[in-house]
């Protein structure tokens, strides 16, 4: 992927983009939705092109611009899905340590209890408590156990947190 591509983010060690099965499903759904939209926009552009002078045809110009945006996003999503390493947190065997997919509750320096889930960079959303595996917070917590105190490097300087709980989703029961 080129450095200037949309959403270009640093890769983690090993060059993989980790994501959960839910994250992969969301990217695949977006890819299919955009492909469907592309077919509709192509029809509009074809209709607009048939209306004569393209230099003053707003439908044609807007359609071509939208096609470029769609194609750029489709390329990005296709590359992301191709390079992704899907990791199911429910399959984590070593559940006493923090790894990808863990839901971690910690105490910060103000004794506030905060719960976050470590997910892939494309899935991160602080509003829902999902932090990127590449974030300073997640990197500091990796491999920690309950009771460990770790130091997080923040823009405001180092901050200390204490891990008080680690959870993983339960594996689906075999039917």
**Regarding quaternary structure, how should these chains be classified?**
single chain
Sequence of secondary-structure elements: EHHEEEEHEE
According to DSSP, the number of beta strands is 7
Count of discrete structural domains: 2
Q: Looking at the structure, what is the overall shape?
A: elongated
* Percent range of helical residues: 25-40%
Q: What proportion strand?
A: 15-25%
Taking all Cα atoms into account, the compactness measure Rg is 22 Å
User: How would you characterize the largest beta sheet?
Assistant: 5 strands, mixed
- The strand order across the widest sheet is 5-4-3-7-6
Stretches where pLDDT is under 50 for at least 5 consecutive residues are 1-11
Query: Which class best fits the helix and strand makeup?
Result: alpha/beta
CATH superfamily of the largest domain: Transcription elongation factor, GreA/GreB, C-terminal domain
Q: Please name the CATH architecture of the largest domain.
A: Roll
By CATH, the topology of the largest domain is: Chitinase A, domain 3
**Count of DSSP helices?**
3
Class of the largest domain, according to the CATH hierarchy?
A: Alpha Beta
Distance between the termini: 41 Å
Characterise this structure.
It contains three helices and seven strands, in the order E-H-H-E-E-E-E-H-E-E. The chain is α/β, with parallel strands linked by helices. It has a five-stranded mixed sheet with strand order 5-4-3-7-6. The longest helix is centred in the first third of the chain and has 29 residues. It is elongated and about 70 Å long.
């Amino acid at each position: 992927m080129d450095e200037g591509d949309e959403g270009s983010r640093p890769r983690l060690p090993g060059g993989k983009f980790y994501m959960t099965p839910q994250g992969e499903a969301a990217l695949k759904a977006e890819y299919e939705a955009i492909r469907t939209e592309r077919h509709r926009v192509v029809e509009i552009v074809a209709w607009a092109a048939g209306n004569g002078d393209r230099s003053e045809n707003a439908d044609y110009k807007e359609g071509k611009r939208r096609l470029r945006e769609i194609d750029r996003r489709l390329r990005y999503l296709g590359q992301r899905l191709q390079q992704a390493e899907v990791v199911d947190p429910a399959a984590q065997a070593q559940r006493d340590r923090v790894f990808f997919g863990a839901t971690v509750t910690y105490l910060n320096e103000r004794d506030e209890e905060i719960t976050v889930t470590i997910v892939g960079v494309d899935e991160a959303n602080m509003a829902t408590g999902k932090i990127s595996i590449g974030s300073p917070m997640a990197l500091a917590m990796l491999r920690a156990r309950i009771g460990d105190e770790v130091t997080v490097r923040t823009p405001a300087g180092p901050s200390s947190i204490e891990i008080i709980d680690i959870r993983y989703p339960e594996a689906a029961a075999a039917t």
